[in-house]
Design goal:
424 residues, Adenine-n6-DNA-methyltransferase TaqI, Chain A, domain 2, alpha+beta, 3 domains, Helix Hairpins
Amino acid sequence: MTNHKDNTGELPHGWEYVKLGDVCEKMSNGANVKQFEEPIGFPISRIETIWNETIDLNRVKYIYENDPEFVKKYALQPGDILFSHINSDSHLGKTAIFRKHSNSLIHGINLLLIRLDKLKVDPAFFQYQFNYKRKQGVFISIAQKAVNQSSINQPKLKNLDFVLPPLKTQKSIVSKIEELFSELDKGIESLKRAQQQLKVYRQAVLKWAFDGRLTNENVKEGEMPEGWRTATIGEIGKVKGGKRLPKGHYYSEIPTKHVYIRVTDFDNQSINQSKLKFLYPSTQIAIKNYTISKEDVYISIAGTIGVTGIIPPSLDGANLTENAAKITELKGIENKFLSLFLLSVKGQSQIKVNTKTTTQPKLSLFRIETIEIPIPKISEQIIIMQTIENRLSISDKLEETINQSLQQAEVLRQSILKMAFEGN
């Protein structure tokens, strides 16, 4: 790129700001027609077809239509942009460009069609501007709010300012953006691959631990080390459920000394305390028998099933949600050892087998009692826990670095777009 902003902050020579409506040939809503799963007739676009800024033809439904005028009216043309103008805030303003396809794609309802003047505009250049504006919160700022979704009307959208360089420059910018994004995507792919490798490593550590191989080098696959035994959870402790808020009771609007722990608070074998809920004293009295201690192990039993861990000492005696159970009164086993075992493949596979699959999957308390655990002596349990935590601590630090790099990659993506639209 050779054009740059001058010292006055003006756009480069030959660039201008235009209203979206000034470069639109067409902006319209789609057809509201009956749709079918079977691949008959014409595929039709839906909000679900916008996937990773492209149109995913594997997610389309179909319509049966014989009227040539209808097809002509609603068929997409190469270069058309679909814009999500009615959606939740996180998905509002998502776009996709329609490319050439062997069959006509019909423009469906809830997606706005934007057809640009191709003598002035490269659609890909404008799609990048749409994406940049969405990340900057522009669409949320002009949207009309509703309870579950927001919407943008056409007049507001048409009145938005867009940068318009000469067409040749637009194509050059798109080429450069795609080159840079391609390199960035390769880096992101490598980071995500590393994330998956860390997950495999963590499970390998847990497998070695509960096979006994972390503390017994000579133990063979499938054999139990000398001095180990197998017991069910029902034999080494008791399983008790949590409790929902009684009818007519609500969370306290201000923090109190009565914490209510939900499944959404379960995090990394402990509790994420950033969004805890609190109870009024009267509510706590009503469910005072459903608390969890720092010596117990929690396990989620509804919705997201099999999330396990222990609570920090600062939350000792907090109330526990009805969607979780506690394993309490443990004998001959450390709570952290049990929690880590339930996190392992062996533990999770038993949890899965014991989960009753209905409309709402549920793990019954009596089924938790049947889960079998390999148990060494307490002294060996402590060594195993320390070894696991040391190794997982290293992987956690690596994952934190990876997550930071992924966040930086997204910031870099936005920086590239910002520079592009400033002429840099």
